[in-house]
Write a structure and sequence with these properties.
Length: about 140
């Protein structure tokens, strides 16, 4: 049984989307658009009103539930930047140790300020997340 996804992918109108980003986060959002594009080589797409995704993956569980979601991406929330990384936890520890101030949930990295973190480590995390995800599910650039 497949349920209808609540969050769907749509083309990203950069200017319109950036205009809706909190002005305090706008420069960080612009930098993340460039960074994710460079790391993935993929074009950004909007997932819901605020999440920008790069690539997508299709999943199907043994229960029959399935769908698709962004492979990696971010959302410039007012309080923190949310970075979506679908990666295996313990393999990230050495990279996270170099990243700088952050907190990590299961598949989401939270940053207070982009300038406070090591961009090289963030790039490695994005790549590691995509590699891990690709071992679990089919990943597509669009």
């Amino acid at each position: 049984m497949t349920s209808e996804a609540k969050t769907r992918s749509a083309p990203l109108d950069r200017e319109a989307w950036l205009a809706g980003v909190d002005p305090k986060r706008r420069a960080e959002a612009e930098r993340l658009l460039v960074l994710f594009g460079e790391v993935t080589g993929w074009e950004p797409r909007l997932w819901g009103p605020s999440m920008v995704g790069f690539g997508r993956y299709e999943y199907r569980y043994e229960s029959g539930h399935g769908g698709e979601s962004l492979a990696t991406g971010f959302s410039p929330r007012k309080a923190e930047l949310s970075i979506y990384l679908m990666a295996g936890g313990e393999t990230l520890a050495p990279i996270l140790a170099r990243l700088g101030p952050h907190r990590m949930a299961k598949a989401c990295l939270y940053l207070k300020r982009l300038e406070a973190v090591d961009e090289g480590a963030l790039r490695e995390l994005i790549r590691a997340g995509l590699e891990h995800l690709g071992r679990l599910w089919p990943v597509h650039p669009v």
